[in-house]
Amino acid sequence: MKKFLLSLIALFAVTAAATASEVTITQDGSFAWTAGTDATYGAGFSATTGGFNLGLWKNNSKNTILEPVSEIRVYKDAAFVIENVGGEAITKVVITTTAKDKTYDMTANGEVDAAVGDGVAKTVTWSGNATKLVLEANNGQVRVKSMVITYGEAEPVTQVEKPTVKPTPGTYYEPIEFTCATATEGATLKYSLDGGETYVDYSGPVEIAASCEVEVYAVKEGLDDSEHVSAIYTIAEPEAVASVAEANAKAESDAVVRFSNPVTCIYQSGSYTYVKDETGYTLLYGKGLPAYTNGSVVPAGFYGKMTIYSDLIEFTTQVSSGVYSTESFAESTESVAPVEPAVVTLADVTAEKMNQYVKIENVTYNAADKTLVDGENTLAVYNRFSGVTLPEDGNYTVTGFVSIFNGTVQLYPTAFENLSGVEEINAAAEDNAPVYNLLGQPVSRDTKGQVIVKNGKKFINK
User: Fold this and answer.
1) Whole-prediction pTM value?
2) Which domains can be identified in the chain, with CATH numbers?
3) pLDDT tens by residue, 75-88
4) Pick from 158, 345, 407, 414: CA 20 to 30 A from residue 196's CA?
């Protein structure tokens, strides 16, 4: 039975091995890739090197397939195909991946192995007997650096190839579409939804809306039946929550929740979407959400997992390994008044205000250590969002979101309002114009060190 094995090995250069039945291929720019389309797997890139045809194809991946440069990036649901030009069987492939900190799952012709990326290069070894090898990543991505391929005369085929099933067995929170396949041409697939009590012929995708155990095998005249494959699917219902406060309270239990009421978007940047309702604030973390803007109403019905990441409460769209709830988010069809930040002082910014939208007026920013300072109070600044540039030293009014990382309260800024350079502007202002504070109340022209409004503009009176 084919299976994956993990071990540490050194990276290889592009060379032919000592025997004619082994070749090593390294993605280092020594051979060219050509953009194209595969009839089975869609758009992508192909190359021929070392006597093998290689293909990196989009398949069912949501990611754009990139032309390999220093590594071959196999995204979730993409297909990396290895095929011998001469038609000889592939009996073993040792794949070395680049160092990666995240966990990923990888399959080769349907055989699954959990390869834990812990910051060091790993190898995945496949052994079997196939004329074509199809590699897929079940979540995240697998970055292939080199391959040692062993090939030769195929062993006589006496049994139908073991079927593969999709999606990966596990817990889902919406109905799923079950598919199965076998590499043996002309074989008939048979499946059961009751754990093997009764079988029917498989002819296409099957919707599974309730928890069940699926069993699959394949038959072909003249060959032994394939091994049976069992897959347990649990279709669960997320816990209903009626408010942000109710959802946040479930973060410690990693509960999967579904919002039964809408929320209002405050800000969105990349994977970060901040929302609120009358009960509180939270962070929706995940890629691929509809484009929401300040004031957009996020419709009810979306779900995800409430969790705590390095002390920060967040709602994540990844509900389990390789399972995402992105499609449960609907486009906004209505909006309300834009959400304004709460005006606070540095002393007010504590962990209890995490994920809240705040404005801090007239504070000093120190660029060297990335902090905001107001007397004895100091707050760390972390530049989380694209399009935001940290400024030089100076006095600013700063807006952003309160965050926390491993016990340290931080501010993720969205904007810095420059309050410097006011002396030149004051000189040009009308001398007799009335002066107001930021609340619109008249103040004396002699008020020093405060932010004032004169002729419709803000100044620091020095």
Assistant:
1) 0.68
2) 4-152 (2.60.120), 164-235 (2.60.40.10), 239-328 (2.40.50), 342-418 (2.40.50.140), 422-460 (no CATH)
3) 888 889 999 888 88
4) 158
